[in-house]
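Q: Convert this sequence to structure tokens.
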Amino acid sequence: MRRVAQRPEGYPARVGATTVSLNDLCINTIRGLSMDAVEAAKSGHAGLPLGAAPMAHVLWTKHLRFDPKNPKWFDRDRFILSAGHGSMLLYSLLHLTGYDLPLAELKNFRQLHSMTPGHPENFMTPGVEMATGPLGQGVAHSVGMALAERFLAATYNRPGHEIVDHYTYAICSDGDLMEGVSNEAASLAGHLKLGKLIWLYDDNGITIDGTTDIAFTENVEVRFRGLDWHVLRIDGMDVDAVDQAIRDAKAVTDKPTLIMARTIIGFGSPKLAGTNKAHSNPFGGEELRATKQNLGLPPDEMFYIPEEALAYFRSAGERGTQRHEEWNEAMRAYAAAFPTEAAQLRAAISGEMGTEWLDSLPAIADKQATRKSSEVVINAIADQWPTLIGGSADLAESNLTTQKGKGEFQAGNPTGKTIAFGVREHAMMAAVNGINLHGATRGYGASFLIFSDYARPTLRLAALMETPSIFVFTHDSIGVGEDGPTHEPVEQLMSLRAIPNFNLFRPADGNETAVGWKLALQSDRTPTLLALSRQALPAVTPDTVKNHPAEKGAYILKEASADPKLILIGTGSEVQHCLKAQETLEAEGVPTRVVSFPSWFLFGQQPKEYQQSVLPKGVPTLSVEAGSTLAWPRYADASIGIDRFGLSAPGDTVMKEFGFTPENVVKVAKELLAG
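A:
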């Protein structure tokens, strides 16, 4: 009889067989591949795959709809390994079920440029839906995916033609459920009754520092029931219990489900099973061999895949390919019965939304806050972009992101295009990423710029995942005024510009705002943050949206009367002051150029020749922006900015106090020229 690792006290009993069943063989194959890859890399996390392999096996072979030959099949189920440190669990499943992930890549785990990085990355590995690893993010993003499925199903399905019909699954850990973002997201999912969202909780009772009870003693079941979730408790090592739990979860249509699966971290290891020592790092040769012996695997054979197990996994992949073909047939029947809806859905899936929305983008000559201009743009294109959905973190009247007349997305009205995210900035932006990762939907979320700090991990992940999410942040400066320094962003603009592959766009007026929206919706790999003003701004840039020079990130807004002796750079609400200062300087005989600089990211993508034509070397340059000056030396010789916290007073008063006036721009410019 093969040896079985001792269960820690309190775990449910499980009766093992003396002979290895096909299920056990498949499960142990996942375990063996995971252990071997971690051992070969000399780093990684084998503990989770050893414990979670049974429920992952059941999910992937009995329930999950996927096509390994076409990983982006639209109506596939979405699977997220939120506990991304256990990445070898996912990589093993992808290889075994037939995705284009060769065994050589598993052997190259965690190595430079491999398809198997330490934590899953959606742009590196076919079949990976999102980048996970920062705990809580996977489950939070899954809410956006489930929300997108619900919206599309309600919008496009017709009786007898359920063309959008899939589930969103996530495997999460204790750490995921400790992170605050997971609670925000679970609260939203419960409120919206996202019945096709299922989280499998790898409840192994262990964290890096020890048992979970050193820091995590809450009643998770009661918490989730209070969040209006369906909750099941099972033995996660029992494949029949896992199978039945997933079936039960799918039968509940008006609540998301949390399956609390009690498991054993590092299962099979004689010394490490059920302990925090199994969480990370390779087991070492001796313990690896002993664990394999316990599991009935050849102790000295690395990356062992039995033929029977591989055939079983591959048959699951083949069934998925067949389901995809059946869906294609169903889509053809749907198109015959509902050609308009089918054409619209196909366009959304492909991302080819035509040109009508572009033609609807307004030129905006009014003096108004750029947040108001953003509202004008959203509503101008709402009809032409039927799958554009989004909303605000309980600030809709301030952010102005409501699609008028399009309804509010609620459990009882899933075709609504405006989402009430509640005061959940972090979960909101994770859901926005999930909406965009899902496909066919374009999502946006909104709050005050100061609260980007609450959501920063999800903004960073959007950039890392090359996901074109749209983040609308209003009240973008100390111009907020009376609300004072707690609500006045100072360092946010500069710190957010530091995120790679992230387009922070701070428009000077309505026309630049429309350009920002245009670029955001045309982007396919880069998220966009629109930093918008609370206060009204005059129209100062070219009165057009098509071929607007702001698309290059920075441009000469108003040229000097002769070869420039000075360049004034402005962003957002400060461009107007640069233009007025130019008038004074020109009248005093100083040829002055004004540059509008809405996007560092876009300007950095332009050819060097263009960059130098806008900001030629040797010409003194002064930047004017109501924010930190920390990185402005990259482009400017001197800066007018704010490197301290703001003040509480009317917005115009605060702006004047910190020198954001034409008069002060002239004064500082003269000081710069005087050397």
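The chain has a mean pLDDT of 96.
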